[in-house]
From TrEMBL:
Keywords: Ammonia transport, Cell membrane, Membrane, Transmembrane, Transmembrane helix, Transport. The keyword rRNA-binding does not apply. Residues 9-411 form the Ammonium transporter AmtB-like domain. PANTHER family: AMMONIUM TRANSPORTER MEP2. Gene3D superfamilies: Ammonium transporter AmtB like domains (1.10.3430.10). This is Ammonium transporter. Its main location: membrane. The chain crosses the membrane at residues 12-31, 38-59, 104-126, 133-155, 167-189, 201-221, 233-253, 265-282, 288-307, 319-343, 363-381. InterPro entries: Ammonium/urea_transptr, Ammonium_transpt, Ammonium_transpt_CS, NH4_transpt_AmtB-like_dom. It is a multi-pass membrane protein. It comes from Planomonospora sphaerica.
């Protein structure tokens, strides 16, 4: 089949947009932490790009999208190993699904999804985990959780065979990452001084910049998932904008009614909640449904971020409250409002005359993926903690993970330094770090 230049160009652009989302996430998360942790938080996103790229090239694509053996029972759980190192994709001029797109372009696009899914988890662990331990966790988690789950839903696995609808990753990315974040947060424990000391975002300007980059990149994330340039691409693009704007507004309204004021952190978090919720649904629903999904996500996530205080887990940057809650809203909503199923086994939602079985699959998917991700993530985190230690010392955490782990600080403020003592005759005296954690 001849390469379709238009679709290929769009997919190359979409891939770049999705990759940009991870540095955008670094800004978003970095601004939400305290000043003494901003560099470490951003580094956790950047190193995810490195680790997952290597894993994806070596074996990740194969585990997610190859066929295991004869395509029988094993292939319902995990892909094969036919394209180790991606060498088997180089001579494949186009994908065999009629898109007219080189297979390597498809692989690069999917790789960026794996990258940001791993990076999302880091938001629950701000201030307190060893950098080396995070690298090990990221590599193992991508291998035994993300790649198989991507296969279940998009690579011909068992959820795909049941007809689950997940256009761009509500289940694969957001519920998956949210469940993992909860598990690892429980293993590493709460930050020193949690619920006693103020732990407010140190730079809301960075938060808004990061949210803007995420919103921008998400058009590639969602509209690009059509893998072509057609009417569904336009539908996904418009639905993404609608749900995001409505969710941001809904979050602000909740804040105004509940707290008496609307905040910049609220508008940024609401926008991300809308992006998360519309991700599984963007190519399946009418614009009116995108409006409803956005409103539901804005309200549900605004209240969902408070779960950590009621249940007592320290999810530093609200990964569970935004990504897991928002992902569930979008995935389950499809059982009611899906209007344009396009794959074998997929059905319309109940409001369009579809069977209740589709709603059942839309519930089963989040439950199965959430449970698998939580259990396996907890095991991985426990093993890392027992073997190399997952958490830095309390002393280093109080001093600031940036200086103790990376020997750097995010801001050089001269005579005003968060970790030093102001001197009337010169720059602040900064206590030397005893060690730099791996």
């Amino acid at each position: 089949m001849k390469i379709d230049g238009g679709s290929t160009a769009w997919m190359l652009m979409s891939t770049a947009l999705v990759l940009l989302m991870t540095p955008g996430l670094a800004f978003f998360y970095g601004g939400m932490t305290r000043a003494k942790s901003v560099l470490n938080m951003m580094m956790m996103s950047w190193v995810s790009i490195i680790v997952v790229t290597v894993a994806w090239v070596l074996y990740g694509h194969s585990l997610a999208f190859d066929t295991a053996g004869d395509g029988g029972f094993l292939n319902k759980l995990v892909g094969g190993l036919d394209n180790i190192g991606l060498s088997g994709l180089v001579d494949t001029a186009t994908k065999d699904d009629g898109t007219g797109m080189p297979s390597l372009v498809f692989s690069a696009f999917q790789m960026t999804f794996a990258i940001i899914t791993v990076a999302l988890i880091s938001g629950a662990l701000a201030d307190r985990v060893k950098f080396g331990a995070w690298v090990v966790f990221a590599l193992v988690w991508a291998t035994v959780v993300y790649f198989p789950v991507a296969h279940w839903v998009w690579g011909g696995g068992w959820l795909s065979n049941l007809g689950i609808e997940d256009f761009a990753g509500g289940t694969v990315v957001h519920i998956n990452a949210g469940a993992a974040a909860l598990a690892v947060a429980l293993v590493v424990g709460k930050r020193v001084g949690w619920r006693k000391d103020p732990m407010r975002p140190h730079n809301l300007t960075l938060v808004l910049l990061g949210a803007g980059l995420l919103w921008f990149g998400w058009f590639g994330f969602n509209a690009g998932s059509e893998l072509a340039v057609d009417g569904t691409t336009g539908l996904a693009f418009m639905n993404t904008q609608i749900a995001t704007a409505v969710a941001a507004g809904a979050w602000l309204l909740v804040e105004k009614l509940r707290d008496g004021h609307s905040t910049t952190l609220g508008v940024a978090s609401g926008a991300v909640a809308g992006l998360v919720a519309i991700t599984p649904a963007c190519g399946f629903v009418d614009p009116w449904a995108a409006f409803v999904i956005g409103a539901l996500a804005g309200v549900a996530c605004a209240y969902g971020v408070g779960l950590k205080y009621r249940l007592g887990y320290d999810d530093s940057l609200d990964v569970v409250g935004v990504h897991m809650v928002g992902g569930v809203v979008g995935a389950v909503a499809l059982g009611f409002v899906a209007a344009y199923p396009f794959a074998d086994g997929q059905e319309k939602g109940l409001l369009y005359g579809g069977p209740i079985s589709q709603l059942g699959v839309q519930v089963l998917g989040p439950v199965a993926v959430g449970a698998y991700s939580f259990i396996v993530s907890w095991i991985i985190a426990k093993v890392v903690d027992k073997t190399m230690g997952f958490r830095i010392s309390a002393e280093d955490e109080v001093a600031g993970i940036d200086i103790t782990t990376h020997a750097e600080t995010g801001y050089d403020l001269g005579t005003v330094h968060s970790s030093g003592v102001a001197s009337p005759n010169g720059p602040a005296v900064v206590p030397a770090a005893k060690k730099v954690e791996a």
